[in-house]
Amino acid sequence: MKKICIIGNGVAGITAARHIRKQKSASEYSITVISAETEYFYARTALMYIYMGHMTFEHTKPYEDGFWKKNDIALVRDYVRQVDISNKRLRLQQGEEMPYDILIIATGSKSHRVGWTGEDLQGVQGMITIQDIERMEENTRHIQRAVIVGGGLIGVEMAECLHSRQIPVTFLVREEEYWHNVLPLEEAKMASRHIRGHGIDLRTGAGLKEIKGNAQKRVQAVVTTAGEEIPCQMVGITIGVTPQIDFLKESAIETDRGVLVNAFLETNVPDVYAVGDCAQHRQAPEGRKNVEQIWYSARMQGETVAQTICGYKTRYVPGVFFNSAKLFDIEYQVYGTVHPQPTEEEEHFYWEHQGGEKSVRVVFEKETRSVLGFNLMGIRYKQAVCDRWIKEKASIMHVMEHLQEANFDPEFFRHYEKEIVARFNQQYPDRAVKLKQKKSLVATLLGW
Amino acid sequence: MNTHTTHLIRSVGLLLFILGFGFFIAVFFLSGYQLTDDVLKQELQEENQSDQAPNAAGQETSDNTEESFMPKSMYTIVQEEAEEMLGKVYAFNFSFIRDFSDVIDRSNQQIRGIYGITSDEMEQMVQTLAEENNLAYTAEAAGAVFADDTVGRFKRKMLQDYTGWLEGKQFDNPDNLRSQLAGTVASINRDVTQQKGIGRYEQKGVKTAVVKAATIGFVKDRQWLVFIISYGVTILGALLYLLPRLYVHPGIKNNHIFHSSLKHRGWLGMMLGTFLIVFYVILYFYPYYMTNWILVVDPISQWLNGGPAGEFFLYGFLYTLCILVMGIRMILNYRHSNYHIIRTISVIFFQTAFAFLIPEILVRLNYPYYDFKNIWPLDYDFFFPGSLSQLIESGGLGIFMLGWGIVLIVLAVPILVYFLGKRWYCSWVCGCGGLAETLGDPYRQLSDKSLRAWQVERYLVHGVLVFAVLMTIGMIYTFFTGSGSLLGIPTYSVAEVYGFFIGAGFAGVIGTGFYPLMGNRVWCRFGCPLAAYLGIVQRFKSRFRITTNGGQCISCGNCSTYCEMGIDVRWYAQRGQNIVRASCVGCGVCASVCPRGVLKLENAEEKGRFGKPILIGNDSVRVDQ
Ligand SMILES: Cc1cc2nc3c(=O)[nH]c(=O)nc-3n(C[C@H](O)[C@H](O)[C@H](O)COP(=O)(O)OP(=O)(O)OC[C@H]3O[C@@H](n4cnc5c(N)ncnc54)[C@H](O)[C@@H]3O)c2cc1C
Ligand code: SF4
Ligand code: SF4
Question: How far apart are CA B96 and CA B564, in angstroms?
Fold first, then answer.
């Protein structure tokens, strides 16, 4: 019997555990998951909903507590201080040493910090763990204003959290529009507009210089790069995350920003693997970053490493990129590659609804006209269809013609394909297409 | 509008709502009561006439012959017994009802004295049978001992009805005969009040009518004023509280639900639950305590159906109002979604038109009360002999209603569920569903998602379906054969048990009373036999399913949390599998609350409906070593 230890019960570690157990019984492989933050796996992505009161912590656990015992997956709540590679042992904070035959490192990320003055004051925090949420409860009690620094997805989630408690928020974003380092300008503008529409004091092109505290070492104000002092009692730092691998410093496991892995998610040490947020690919998979801190990638790496460990050596090849988020009330989806600025080789077709809260962007290659990506705001598209079009290098005309196939909005929602195609035909009269009208309302209703 | 103004409007609304609703509660206690001869005359002489009509047990008495000696009428007896109550002013309904219940008991006692079979008469029967009939029992011989007057004839008839099973039986000694007869005579004497007095089934109605008629004071004198304050102010308050939501950006706003005492089983939730449970217990079992509330809606009832209101008119009225006002809330909250807007308008329409107005108008036109959208076995008394004969007797329309009801069961359910899923009924048409989706919407997150709850659900809901079917078979048998017993089981008693435990207890008291405790679909999920039937079709033969969008699920849990049927939607979504579940009522809320747009309710080809768990996005390849 082989003993598999997994450090970290996030989606990467837990997915690996589940997929190993699917193939190997407890008598073949024993599985132990050691994690410090919580006893059970929960959805980190749902943290904001706990603070906002949409759910309790219990609701964010994807599996019932009995599930783990039933599947012979042992859970240990402890912190791994050290990995002793030569003896294949883990040193835990509280418990004994723990031997392993195979080790999976899935320790996720921690809040990124750049060493601002005042970073350690009370009331300054990130939003990564459940403990952060508890801290946020404390830090936001009876406050007059909060400042959030850093305009990514966690930043906007934090803004929504504070907004739900009617706390005035100043949101400092370095880019000229919210998340413009990822979103193309129009979408970034839409997002900025929407965030401001909710009463958030969004400051673009603004950075943080320092955080000032009072005598009790509590936050009292921030000073922006422009020199403005904004009084506040809480500061959220959401300038990104960084792999949580400090405990590996003394081991021979090679690290850089994250734990270095090859295409099989193997580290430089035999029988030691790394997956999820903490892994750094020596060579980034095609079209991907070498450290990709998103839920889906963590899950897919967990799935993949399980195959290798069960004896089916499998190369990690993420398919067409996809991601999604919700910016207050606007849902955002992306399939394939969408750069914030069109590159030399590509062209962007963009349609925006007059209400300014819905848009569709299709990116295609100038020369071949084959689609490369979709960026959607306020409209849902089917992943299966977009994925297929991108893989098959379908032409932009084909896509426009069959646009209805991609729509995933709920029944009775207004459809905009006609408008979108009309717009396309106007813009590209030489490539004008006719929209394939799929169905009448009755037919759609009955599913014909 | 700035937040300050909306806040002010909401506060005023809440205040008005609390005042109005508080007044509504106060009305319960607000009247005085005085029993007068007129009240008795009005309520009991009517009763006496209806006494001749078939009673709850479906038996009939007919003595139309002119008679010189007339026994005292029930009205006279009650009047005698109520001597002390007459004219006395009571400040509370509790004491009034206590005294009047005593009056009814004593009156029934008198009735037993008049119409009951005395021990002397029984002794005579034994003697007569022993001497003249060789100890063989025949009702004719035994009945000869009674005088030939109204009372005597009545007793003879009772004896005949109750001793069918004894007819012709030979006894070997008088003691055996006596002991057999004693049991039967005891039942007869017990049931005499059913026919001549105020029987068990009638008492609720008589008491309610008398208490209502005996009411004096403010509520009675100012029905309209009381109506306007208790309903008008409450509704106005509710609307003022709700309407400012128009100024909040459309979208899912489930903020603070789990911080709310009302919505997360805090003390407010417990109080509301208790209120609802008490309300239902009074409504079904002790309606005579809520006569003040009934009085207030009397004018509405008069206007609609030409008659005074009873407790079920009050209930229907309140029910419709709740669906309407909370339906407006639902539409405001989900106004970004046409699916919810349309289905909420649909439940409001079906409740107002089909469940409330049309039946009342039918009654006004002297047709049977009929809800065209209520389907057996939810409508569990559809096949009761009383209902069947009423439909059949009321001619063309009645026959149409009977046919319509049957078509709904055998055609509409399977065909529509095949094309649309059970949602066409459960979250678009049904009254219970309508209330759950509107009044119950704030409590959907309280449903139990555990596997255990799912197991319990399957046993319970299918158990109730089996119970309903068996009970109905008994009733149909009774309708055709006239016999109240099938395979030795008394069919009426089974129906009565069903009505008490399932019809009133489960559907009403638990179904709605437990909204703030166990979520808004307790009845639909664990108890409704129609939901079980619709669910079986949906599970095995339907084009409906909820599809998932590739690998987009982030396992956040919003869908499962807000599924009122306690389906662990996330379990399927996170493995990329379609959701095909018997219990899904297609409310569409899981799809609305999903922050990643993963879920979509769809009708499509049956092929591939269950789907394999597939998560798109991982193209990893096995390497052959
Ligand atoms: C607020 C928030 C919202 C997000 N929303 C989205 C989203 O909408 N979509 C999306 O794609 N991604 C989202 N992400 C990112 C996503 O959650 C992560 O990419 C994903 O959770 C990574 O999973 P993981 O298993 O690699 O690590 P984690 O989930 O971080 O789990 C690692 C676990 O290991 C434990 N651990 C670390 N070191 C040790 C040690 N030495 N000993 C013991 N235990 C240890 C940690 O305590 C932690 O519990 C979000 C992240 C956050 C913080
Ligand atoms: S699964 Fe979704 S649509 Fe079905 S009952 Fe639950 S929340 Fe409603
Ligand atoms: S709400 Fe959506 S993202 Fe969250 S668990 Fe359900 S399907 Fe997945």
Answer: 43
- Average per-residue pLDDT in chain A? 96
Per-10-residue mean pLDDT of chain B, 625 residues long, equals: 86 97 95 93 65 40 49 86 92 94 93 91 90 88 88 90 84 88 88 86 91 93 93 97 94 96 95 96 95 95 91 96 97 97 97 94 89 94 92 90 94 96 97 96 97 97 96 92 84 91 92 95 96 97 95 97 97 95 97 97 90 84 71
Tell whether B533 and B550 lie within a shared domain: no
Tell me the two tokens of residue A107: 């320790």
Q: What is the pLDDT of residues A206-236, one digit of tens each?
A: 999 999 999 999 999 999 999 999 999 999 9
The percentage of residues in chain A with a pLDDT greater than 90, rounded to a whole number, is 96
pLDDT band at A443 (very low <50, low <70, confident <90, very high): low
Please, where are the H alpha helices in A294-412? 295-309, 383-391, 396-401, 403-406
Ligand 3 atom nearest to CA at B556:
4
SS3 A440: coil
> How far is residue A211 from each of residues A115, A137, A139, A169, A187, measured CA to CA in Å?
11, 20, 15, 16, 31
How is residue A264 written in tokens? Answer: 């099989």
The DSSP bridge partners found for residue A148 are A171, A236
Looking at the structure, tell me whether residues B290 and B324 fall in a common domain.
Answer: yes
Choose the final residue of a domain: B510, B525, B542. Answer: B542
Ligand 1 center to A241 CA (angstroms) = 10
How many CB atoms sit inside 10 A of residue A386's CB? 28
Domains and CATH numbers, chain A: 2-110+242-309 (3.50.50.60), 124-239 (3.50.50.60), 322-446 (3.30.390.30)
Give dist(CA B343, CA B354) in Å, integer.
15
Q: Which of B542, B562, B583 is the last residue of a domain?
A: B542
Residues with beta carbon inside 6 Å of ligand 3?
B 553-559, 569-570, 573-574, 594, 596, 598-599
Q: Hey, are the CB atoms on A304 and B620 less than 8 Å from each other?
A: yes
Q: Is A387 on the interface with B (CB under 8 A)?
A: yes
**Tokens standing for residue B503:** 């019809």
Contacts of A316 in chain B (CB under 8 A): 620
For residue A11, the CA-to-ligand 3 centroid distance in Å is 14
Ligand whose nearest atom lies closest to the CA of A93: 1
Indicate whether A194 pLDDT > 70: yes
| Residues B618 and B533 reside in one and the same domain | no
Query: Do B460 and B468 meet the contact criterion of CB atoms below 8 Å apart?
Result: no
Residue B26 lies in a domain: no
Whether residue B400 lies inside any domain: the answer is yes
pLDDT confidence of residue B486: 87
Out of B250, B588, B621, closest to residue A315 by CB: B621
Domain that holds residue B108: 32-216
The whole-number pLDDT of residue B624 equals 60
Structure confidence at residue B54 (pLDDT):
38
Specify the number of domains making up chain B.
3
Of B258, B339, B570, which has the smallest distance from its Cβ to A412's Cβ?
B339
**pLDDT at residue number B61:** 43
A28, A315 in Cβ contact below 8 A?
A: no
Which residue CA neighbors atom 2 of ligand 2 most closely? B590
Nearest CA in chain B to A63: B571
Q: What is the pLDDT of residue B49?
A: 45
pLDDT attached to residue B161: 85
- Cβ–ligand 1 distance for A109 under 6 Å, the answer yes
Print burial letters for A76-90: b (CB count within 10 Å at least 16), e (below 16): bebebebbebeebbb
- What confidence score (pLDDT) does residue B230 get? 95
